[in-house]
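HOLO CASE FILE
Compound: 2-(butylsulfanyl)adenosine
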Amino acid sequence: MSDNHYLHAGPYDFAPTAEVGEDSARNEVDLLVEAIRHHDRQYYVLDAPSISDGGYDRLFARLRELERAFPELRRDDSPTGRVAGGLLESLPEVQHLAPMLSLDSSGDNDRVLEFDDRARRALGLDELIYVAEPKFDGISIEIVFEDGVYARAATRGDGYAGEQVTEQVRTIKSLPLSLTPTVTATLPAVLAVRGEILMPLEGFHAMNRGRVERDEEPFANPRNATAGAIRQLDAAAAASRPLDVFFYEVLAVEGAPLPATHWETMEWLRDLGLKVERQVERCAGIEEAIAYHDSLEAQRDDLPYEIDGVVIKVDDRQQQLELGFRSRNPRWAFAHKFAPREEVTRIEDIALQVGRTGIIAPVALLAPVEVGGVTISRASLHNYDQVRAKDIRPGDSVRVHRAGDVIPYVVERVDDRPESARPAPFEMPTTCPVCGSNVERDGAYFVCTGGILCGAQVNGAIEHWASRSALDIEGLGGKTVRQLTEAGLVTDSVADLYRLTKEQLLPLDLFGDLKADKLVEAIAASRETSLARLVYAFGIRHVGEHVAVVLANEFGDMRTLMAADEERLIAVHEVGPRVAHNVREFFGQERNRVVVEQLLELGMNPQVERSETPAIFAGDKFVVTGSLERFSRKSIGELLADLGARVTSSVSSKTDYVVVGENPGSKATKAEGLGVPVLTEDEFIALLAERGHTLEN
Ligand code: IVH
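Model generated. Tokens follow.
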């Protein structure tokens, strides 16, 4: 193996294809397949890349070239087969090599103890060794290797026969297309393994964002997205989905002995190159397995993919055989479920919620229901289009989802009442339910045009005005703002803030002498600010910090910006029609212009801080991942901002560059998948130099 020079990072010296004879081509194809398999495994299974992207691409291109010149040399396990893809008419049915059974399951500790009791009694033992492992919430799959080469894959189906999805599954990068021969064991002639295909959450969210951007219906959850991908008739379409696969059972084996325990079997599978979850535990007794369940449930929201419980398995294979099966469930395994994250309940009404920025969102008021241990009575319906697409109306039964970090939301309608028993389809109001101002549609959103005049927006608008990135007024947080508006000291204009006196503040609950002084002072001090901060502080829709800087640099003072028409605004680099429309709309309103004039009269004195550095990355989006040597997170962020770039946290098709340091993790992988340029720290510094920016020292 070590004399295969393609295992090393390069450079490679390829002979012109036309001059390669068949024998040496065969030899080279073998070396290339071996090397690419090695690099794939390092990258996708072990997360420890052993070659640069460029080097990998060159090996891959060379293999393609040779296969094109010598089609008979194309091997069944060639990595080029992952991307080719073929269109199927329908999914053929295949018989499993061994039945794919299901598991007895419960979320109840007592049921787990009963399972342990029965197993111990049947075996006449005081304590059993178990292996506890995640119960993956994906799609169960049978994968068969013949003579060590990936031969086929089938969905579970009815447990005895499933649908053949060989080509779709072939596209999953962490699946080895041939097994790694191990020192300690022979390669089995036939190996049928069971595993779970899933979509890691990061890739799932990125994919859904892309779908929303392209006006496609997002997937309800990673499981549905996975099932959809696997059952695609066009394998190339499956290739574009970020799927992963974990293995957890041997279904059948020929020509090699199975290790004596489940634990060792998993190690064996891992040695063969199959991906096996590392966060599993060998437990002495059921109590340890239950403790594993509890600790995994506590970490549930931090895991990179969805799991819905823990599978507890008797470790010893002989004991498994003795215990056997009851109907379609093994007596040696039990699924200890987590609290479900989805429940069905009824929508009592659809309420409208007006947010700080004026977005009016439909919210489902639910018959209270417990989801994942918490009682919920409200759930997001996202926006009007979603309500209509899912055809949700008051009185309907719906499935609601609640995960740790996300707001509960309505997944789908499960109601089957006749149309005549349902109220009319949901409509958005034409006026704001809080202030009565007109409602305007902005893309997927409906927005109240009342701005700071709207009771729903006034507190939020002032809080935003005072926030750190805006005018940074210390002591003017949520509670204080509410007191000011409730006392009528600030009504419909931020200009009111600049007229506040200490005497007005003193009678309020929250204020003593010192705090009143401090707030009046902090407000006065905020008049000396930058134009960009002031523009950002108005809270105009789609005008974030970065766009505010662009506008400030372009127009130089408040009145010029206020007078700019849409055409003039669109002409600005990085200002699109949406921003232009909103800016114009905002300053087009008489009331807003009056507020600006009042502010200027009250001494607001915004300055333009022209940055010295030319914006060599104007408008570019960067993602920084892994730890860098020459920069801290903060310093590279500041540098990029100075150079006109924006730093975002997640990689998407809109990302221009990803800078990677040590231990880059999945963002770099994803960038590659999307074809986004990935730069090492040195390459980044070289790019800076190329564009005329040299770093000090
Ligand atoms: S073992 C005979 N282990 O859970 C035992 N199943 O009904 C075979 N699952 O459809 C299953 N993670 O797809 C096992 N670590 C794991 C699993 C697991 C997920 C799924 C499996 C099956 C369902 C149980």
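CASE NOTES: Residues 101-103, 133, 135-136, 140, 196, 248-249, 311, 330, 333, 335 surround 2-(butylsulfanyl)adenosine (CB under 6 Å). The chain has 25 helices and 26 strands.
CLOSED: yes
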